[in-house]
Design a protein that fits this description.
Helix content: 10-25%
Order of helices and strands: EEEEHE
Strand order of the largest sheet: 4-3-2-1-5
Strand content: 35-45%
Shape: globular
Number of strands: 5
Length: about 70
Amino acid sequence: MEVKVYELGDRVEMKKKHPCGSFQWEIIRMGADIKIKCLGCGHIVMLQRSKFNKQIKKVIINEDKV
């Protein structure tokens, strides 16, 4: 089993497309639940960590963290 590593402020790509057409989201809150913000339209969604782990495709590394 692969352990996915992500932090607050990371941009992630999800498996399913948001209705606005964007696949990219930004993590804005972490805990038992994870709150993400759509980078296409700004919509905010809160997901259980287990559901988030199933739906995430990849983490896009921010240039300001490198």
